[in-house]
Amino acid sequence: MASSMRSLPSDHSRYLESFRLFLENSTEHQCMLEFIEKKLPGIISSIGNGKSAINILSVGGGSGEIDLQILSKIQAKYPGVTINNEVIEPNDEQILSYKERVAKTPNLENIKFTWHKETSSEYESRMNEKKEFKKWDFIHMIQMLYYVKDIPATIQYFHSLLEAKAKLLIILVSGTSGWTTLWKKYGPRLSLNDLCFYDIEERLSQIGLKYQIYELPSTMDITNCFIKGNKEGELLLDFLTETCYFSKTASLDLKNKIMEELKKPECSEEKDGKVFFNNNLSAIVIEP
């Protein structure tokens, strides 16, 4: 790896800029919202039965856009029931965005929000130190497991906090996605720092958890990545490789190989003169 290459999350403003572009150019949120609309009501159908309050834990809640959609479905299923929604999120800006979003959203009177500025491992350590083992009716971890050092242990810990009828929802890139192909092949040459995780189904089976998987088809328009000097394309390349200023800091050999890989059918599909990256996600619902 070239010494000048560094991970994208190390430059927070560039990370946010590239992430914003990723959302604009992909169907990431649309496919999640469709899942929440069509599948989530069935998944949460018994989590609040007989309860006067429902406890929800959002691990890596980000700016809250998806969280609020999830909460609206729980409100619809259990009208009038008090909802305690606690959020684990290490980033100040994201928490601020989340709070602003809550302030602008109507009909949240029965929801109590609590934010914890910490990582999932910091939360776990804090709870263990306090010997607190609060149980939850619904825990979700959306697009955050890439940043966890020991994924099976993290899943096991949060799984241990589930109530009898609760559910743990994990959303992350699918094993069939272009991300998996790209990172498996070139991860060691990029600044990924153990960022990705490919065999989650196998690991879940190994630790004996009962789960169901839903595939969420999604694409990202990466056409601009192939236009030399295109600013948006360069930012999307940063996001794809998790490398800050990838096109400027990667070796010519690595850059050529990545660009070649991105056009292969394992990663993308060319349609109407555009290149669409396979951004498929997996939604994994784990039982107590």
Q: Characterize the biggest β-sheet.
A: 7 strands, mixed
User: Strand percentage, roughly?
Assistant: 15-25%
Distance between the termini: 42 Å
Radius of gyration, in angstroms, nearest whole number: 20 Å
Silhouette: globular
Sketch the topology as an H/E string, one letter per element. HHHEHEHEHEHEHHEEHHHEEE
Give the mean pLDDT.
Answer: 92
Tell me roughly what share of residues is in helical segments.
40-55%
Low-confidence stretches: none
Count the E strands. 10
Q: Going across the biggest sheet, name each strand in turn.
A: 3-2-1-4-5-10-6
| Helix/strand/pairing category | alpha/beta
How many H/I helices?
12
GO biological process, one term: methylation
Organism: Gopherus evgoodei
Protein name: Histamine N-methyltransferase
Keywords: Methyltransferase, S-adenosyl-L-methionine, Transferase
Explain what you see.
It contains 12 helices and 10 strands. α2 (28-38) packs parallel to α4 (65-77). Helix content is 41%, strand content 22%. The radius of gyration is 20 Å and the shape is globular. The longest helix is centred in the N-terminal third of the chain and has 14 residues, at 12-25. The strands form 2 sheets. A 7-stranded mixed sheet has the order 3-2-1-4-5-10-6. Strands 7-9-8 form a 3-stranded antiparallel sheet. With 288 residues, it is α/β, with parallel strands linked by helices.
Secondary-structure topology with pairs:
Layout: H1 12-25, H2 28-38, H3 40-43, E1 53-59, H4 65-77, E2 82-88, H5 92-104, E3 111-116, H6 120-130, E4 136-142, H7 151-159, E5 162-173, H8 178-186, H9 200-206, E6 211-216, E7 219-221, H10 231-241, H11 246-249, H12 252-262, E8 268-271, E9 274-278, E10 281-286
Parallel strand pairs: 1-2, 1-4, 2-3, 4-5
Antiparallel strand pairs: 5-10, 6-10, 7-9, 8-9
Helix pairs in contact: 1-10, 2-4
Binding site for substrate: 28, 279
GO molecular function: histamine N-methyltransferase activity
Organism: Gopherus evgoodei
